Fold:
Amino acid sequence: PPVTEPLPKMPAKKQIGTVALDTALLAKAVKKVLFASGINEMAGDFHCLKVVVSGGEIDIVARDRRAYARSRLPVGSPYQGVFFIKKDGLKIIQKLDSDMLTLTFYNGALGFSSDGSANIEILIPEYTGGKFPSEGGFPTSFKTETKCKAEDLAALLSMAVSVSDELTITMGFVTAGYVKSPIRFRTAADGIAFERSPGFKWEGEELKIRVNAGTLLHAVENLTGDITLSFSGDDMPYSVKSENGEFLAVLSSYSPAERK
Structure:
């Protein structure tokens, strides 16, 4: 289970300032990381996202026992702070239909208002359980990288998960008919293969690993454009990142106990 850190107590509120934010951008950023928020967990359920405002950007962060995910968007804010979106707040964000919203910064809290409505505070530094998973312990270097389009990988994974959660990815190793083998994908059940994928390019050490196809699909299904998958070994976490720096996920290695 992930290491946890205590959350700060809620201070007395004092308004510091406001910033306008595109509603669609916020909703899209939240959607990208929801798969790692623990909302679908039977146990160890965190039901919470971490929001880090710093350097003119907002990081929306989620982490559960299988994955860490971070989505980044510009906010043009001179303010900074760390806040938490509870499950009820996530539902409110997903239902917003106005073009713009106003973020209101307090000393230790953050709220929003939409279309002139009263300020609704959903981002607060506390939630049931009082803890949020720590972000330490991620790999800092990888042996092999694969580059592709997020849409191409999502399409392949959608076919794979209909057969099996377990997906083997092979990068390299000389086989009959190849000078240097292209990346190859094969499911555990029935040995169904997706080979010689022209849109996938790999570099680094030859490597054969297993991943949970369902978890990886959740990480990429809301992404578009160029992404990089970085691997170190079959029993090591691996990462998925967008080339524009807006998204990063670190996913756990494959476990037979995992389910879609």
